[in-house]
Specification:
The complex is a heterodimer. Chain A is mainly α. Chain A is built from 23 helices and one strand. Chain A has one domain: Orthogonal Bundle (MetI-like fold). Helices cover 77% and strands 0% of the residues of chain A. Chain B has two domains: 2-121 and 255-294, D-Maltodextrin-Binding Protein, domain 2 (3-Layer(aba) Sandwich), CATH 3.40.190; 123-252 and 309-336, D-Maltodextrin-Binding Protein, domain 2 (3-Layer(aba) Sandwich), CATH 3.40.190. The relative contact order of chain B is 0.19. Classes of the chains: A mainly alpha, B alpha/beta. At the A-B interface, helix 5, helix 10, helix 14, helix 17 and strand 1 of A face strand 2, helix 3, helix 7, helix 8 and helix 11 of B.
């Protein structure tokens, strides 16, 4: 505790906390509170009774919660083997594979849902029709969220000191018990962080459930949309939004308690030191098998999309890409430029919010920091309609921002900041107090300790978070859709607009643009990861 | 680029010499499927000196709801895209500053509404794929035919609690079979359900996901009367005649309106833009950009744009407003639960 306490004075707390707190208060708490209050004032208590008395609602709430829990467990089970291979082994194609698992994460749900239907829908290639069942919804959630586990858990796993495991093995423990007793406890904070994000994402899943699960399966999020879209039953939407928020806060509090109890201080090693070649033939086949299976799972739906982009007009060729290039409806160049520009702005904002918050929460314990932690994660679990409508009712004073283009990166940053925060927090918590103490004993002042010990680590986890934030922004669709935004669209919005128009070429354009988004994502994430600051590394 | 500069200079000159409006910009709020050719917009700017900003925000329902939430303190100056099914909600919430366009006489009387201006007209109709029917089975001709077991499991409709064409089709069946009597629309939908009607959440999922005319597996879909023509216009390799067709019975007419938002920063410019939307350049641009009919009968349609012989069902916006929520709730009970 000496190491922690000494580093954080009241003044640093204020300096670190001010911007994140102000950002969240202005662009999250205030808009969301305004729209919910508007709904409640309009509806009064009668609405509460009407909504909660609807027998159908209990089913929706129950489905929302259990599918989110099952999606989370399945995602971890499917992702963990791949995470292990990608973070501990030095095999060819590793970085390609890591980029590939990120692509599903940013693809617009509409597009991925169509791809899943092409595989598992009424005319699916695999010959089974799972449309409208929970199975296809779960599969899609695992597909989308794979990257969350691979990146958040991999970010720690790649830096675990291999000597710990070696020691266990040399003491005669089986590989399973080494994993169970040594590795897993060290990974727990990161696993919990990933699980909390996957859970929130699945809990508030909208497009996936709407397209793959309709008409009978609905999450609370789908119901909120249903009440807000054509019905304008704002009181009901507000009550559902509160209900959703209670669930999200509950999950987050449970998570942060768990996190505090289980974070372990340890020395992290550079990834280059921990990754090795597979040693035996058996190990090689295990590694190749895991990569192959995960690759097939990711490549299936993505491959369908690519294939369709070449065949959608009825003959094999570049017709769809030519139609896209002629710039009717939207120009690809503009949409791509918008997407990348917004993503850069959103990434900077998300870093400015998420990093100081993570440093602060990692260093301070107690109720305040726990609430801060929860508040920062809350936007992930809040419905996009609520945020979008909240902006529209609240952000007209003192400056009318409602029609301003800057709301787009701000909305993206709200969703991206939790990723920055969550990818940084587990790593920052593992910085050993003894390292700081040693530095202090050697005569370094608190500032110097921070510069020499914490900063290099902060910079590196910042890069992981930045890659995530960038990807989140590229794929963000929900909150953007509900903003009144100037005409030129982002790529996901452009895809949505093409899909709303009849004609084979418009479907073709939507599909081709999805492939363009895939390529931009892979390239962008690759570039952001290369931007990791160089320097001597603690890890 | 050079054209752009010339246009800008011309616009500036016109603005300097034109005293019709002292406002130099206007912000149009519309749904995501609003589209207009750039040269038509430039024409407006050249004539009036008013720069146009277009804000898009989701589908028709969402923009109307945004307007209701911000009534009196709007995000833009005029709203385009409030349709028959949502008009009364917007009027009841006092969203608009009533405006009667001096050129409003070009709008046929049947489409006129208080305070807002009709811009375009569309029909939500069943589309079918003739090739998907067995030789002995003629495609259905009326709504009533759809409950015939010969058409079991062939139709996909959109969920009226989520999708605007879905709601229009529900309203069409309500006009056709009535809300009271021995056989109501509820009975009709119960029969459709028994006959295996498929419900999709939105138009895109229904049309591109399920309709065999667009690559799916079901021969009939709720879409627009113009969709078959759009299939011709947006085909590559080109085709000369539509491969899908429209069932002319049971269509529902939707009129899309534009209105000046109450509290607009540029009300004069907003009115000027509404007048412009009734002018022939804009009206004749409507079919190719939005696949609906211009409201003006004298607008020339593109030659690929047919006009199927339809006598659509219509319903008064006030009646829709008074019953919509109940009807949708009843539909959910009959069809999904």
């Amino acid at each position: 505790m000496v190491g922690r306490g000494a580093a954080v004075t009241r003044r640093t707390t204020l300096a670190l906390g001010a911007f994140p707190a102000a950002f969240l208060a202005l662009f999250f708490v205030w808009p969301v509170a305004s729209i919910i209050a508007t709904g409640l004032v309009r509806g009064g208590f009668a609405a509460v009774g009407r909504v909660l008395g609807d027998g159908h609602l209990a089913g929706v709430v129950w489905f929302t919660v259990w599918q989110a829990a099952v999606s989370t467990i399945l995602t971890i089970v499917v992702a963990l083997p791949a995470t292990w291979v990608l973070s501990r082994f030095d095999v060819p194609g590793r970085s390609l594979m890591r980029a590939a698992t990120t692509i599903p994460f940013v693809m617009p749900t509409v597009v991925v849902a169509t791809a899943f239907l092409a595989l598992l829908g009424p005319t699916g290639l695999l010959g089974v029709d799972l449309q409208g069942t929970v199975w296809i919804v779960l599969a899609a959630h695992v597909f989308f969220n794979l990257a969350v586990v691979v990146r958040l858990v991999g970010g720690v796993w790649a830096h675990l000191d291999p000597r710990l495991e070696d020691a266990g093995r040399s003491l005669g423990a089986s590989p399973w018990s080494v994993f169970h007793r040594v590795t897993l406890p060290l990974l727990r904070p990161a696993l919990a962080a990933a699980a909390s994000i996957v859970f929130l994402f699945s809990l508030t899943s909208f497009g996936t459930v709407l397209i793959l699960g309709s008409p009978r399966l609905a999450t609370v999020e789908v119901e909120i949309y249903r009440r807000s879209a054509l019905l304008l039953d704002l009181p009901a939407a507000s009550i559902l939004a509160i209900l959703q928020m209670i669930g999200v806060i509950g999950a987050l509090i449970a998570y942060s308690r768990y996190q505090e109890r289980h974070s372990v201080e340890q020395a992290l090693r550079p990834a280059g030191e921990t990754a090795r070649r597979p040693r035996s033939r058996r190990e090689w086949s295990l590694v190749v098998g895991i990569l192959g299976a995960t690759g097939a799972f990711v490549a299936g739906p993505l491959g369908i999309l690519v294939w369709r982009s070449f065949t959608v007009t009825g003959r094999f060729g570049l017709d769809a890409y030519r139609a896209l290039a002629n710039g009717e409806v939207v120009s690809v160049g503009t949409a791509a430029g918008n997407s990348i520009g917004f993503a850069m702005a959103a990434t900077l904002l998300a870093l400015a919010v998420g990093m100081p918050a993570a440093v602060l929460v990692a260093a301070k314990r107690g109720r305040l920091s726990r609430w801060f932690d929860t508040l920062l994660m809350l936007p992930l679990g809040t419905s996009a309609v609520t945020i979008g409508f909240g902006f529209v009712v609240a952000l007209d004073w003192p400056v009318d921002l409602r029609a301003s283009i800057i709301l787009v990166p701000i909305a993206h940053a709200l969703v991206a900041a939790p990723f920055v925060f969550r990818s940084a927090l587990p790593v920052l918590r593992t910085i050993r107090g003894s390292l700081r103490d040693a530095a202090a004993t050697l005569g370094a002042g608190p500032g110097r300790v921070w510069r020499e010990v914490d900063l290099p680590i902060v910079a590196r986890v910042g890069a992981v978070g930045a890659a995530f934030a960038f990807a989140v922004s590229l794929g963000e669709f929900g909150a953007t859709l509900f903003l009144a935004r100037p005409g030129s669209p982002t790529i996901p919005i452009a895809i949505y607009r093409f899909l709303g128009r009849p004609g084979a070429l418009n479907l073709g354009r939507a599909t081709a643009l999805s492939v363009v988004l895939m390529i931009i994502t892979a390239a962008a994430v690759g570039v952001v990861e290369r931007l990791r600051p160089p320097g001597p590394g603690l890890f | 680029m050079r054209r752009l500069i010339i246009a800008a200079v011309a616009a500036a000159l016109v603005a300097a010499s034109c005293s019709r409006s002292t406002e130099s910009s206007v912000t149009v709020v519309a749904h995501d499927f609003f589209a207009v050719s750039q040269d038509v917009l430039d024409q407006f700017t050249n004539e009036t000196g008013i720069e146009v900003t277009i804000l898009l925000g989701g589908d028709a329902g969402l923009i109307v709801n945004q307007a209701v939430l911000t009534a009196g303190n709007p995000v833009g100056d005029l709203l385009f895209g409030v349709d028959t099914t949502l008009l009364s909600r917007a009027l009841d919430a006092d969203v608009f500053d009533p405006y009667v366009s001096p050129v409003g006489g070009v709008v046929p009387p049947e489409y006129r509404a208080d305070g807002v201006t009709a811009i375009d007209v569309g029909d939500v109709c069943i589309n079918y794929d003739p090739a998907a029917f067995d030789p002995g089975v003629p495609p259905p001709a009326t709504l009533a035919d759809l409950t015939d077991p010969r058409y079991a499991g062939m139709l996909v409709v959109e969920d009226p609690s989520i999708s605007s064409p879905g709601l229009a089709f529900l309203l069409s069946t309500i006009v056709e079979f009535g809300d009271e009597g021995a056989y109501t629309w509820r009975d009709y939908w119960a029969d459709l359900r028994a006959n295996g009607v498929v419900v999709a959440p939105d138009w895109g999922t229904a049309y591109y996901g399920r309709f065999s005319g667009a690559g799916g597996d079901l021969p009939m879909v709720v879409s627009y009367s113009t969709s078959p023509d759009a299939e011709v216009a947006f085909a590559d390799p080109p085709i000369t005649s539509p491969t899908t067709a429209v069932m002319t019975d049971g269509c529902f007419r939707q009129v899309e309106y534009a209105g000046v938002l109450r509290g607009a920063a540029h009300p004069q410019a907003a009115r000027a833009f509404i007048d412009f939307m009734l002018g022939l350049p804009f009206q004749q641009d409507v079919p190719g950009q939005m696949f609906v009919y211009p409201v003006r009968p004298d607008a020339v349609l593109p030659d690929w744009f047919g006009a199927p012989p339809i006598t659509p069902n219509r319903l008064d916006p006030a009646v829709i407003e008074a019953n919509r929520d109940r009807w949708v709730a009843e539909w959910l009970d009959v069809v999904l639960r």
